[in-house]
Amino acid sequence: MDRRRRHPAIPRHRGTAAGGGYSTAADLLKFARALRAGKLLPPALLAEATRRQTPWYGYGFMVGERQGVAGFGHGGGAEGMNGALELFPAQDEIVIGLANLDPPEVERLVDYYTARMPLGR
């Protein structure tokens, strides 16, 4: 079954905590840079937010490693929309994926890309 569909003209989910936000890659990049620079959260609070509270989740961020390098981010979507943001602070790397496709297409693409990035090399 081909799960690709055109994004609906008026999404059912609109700006809720569970999705429906609107963004561009440029705006997500600004968000990620501001987060890293301490403009949105003080460094101590960001460190706490990105500390594992469960095996894979912090406070609002998915936390893990790629190639032994610590990173955090978040992804998700709904029918016709999908996004992912991953930050690797020690390497000064940010990965953003956005598409008008059903999940988990973008997460798969970002996973594929980050698995091959020269992070720990």
UniProtKB/TrEMBL annotation:
Residues 8-113 form the Beta-lactamase-related domain. InterPro entries: Beta-lactam-related, Beta-lactam/transpept-like. Keywords: Hydrolase. It comes from the Bacteria. GO terms for molecular function: hydrolase activity. This is Serine hydrolase.
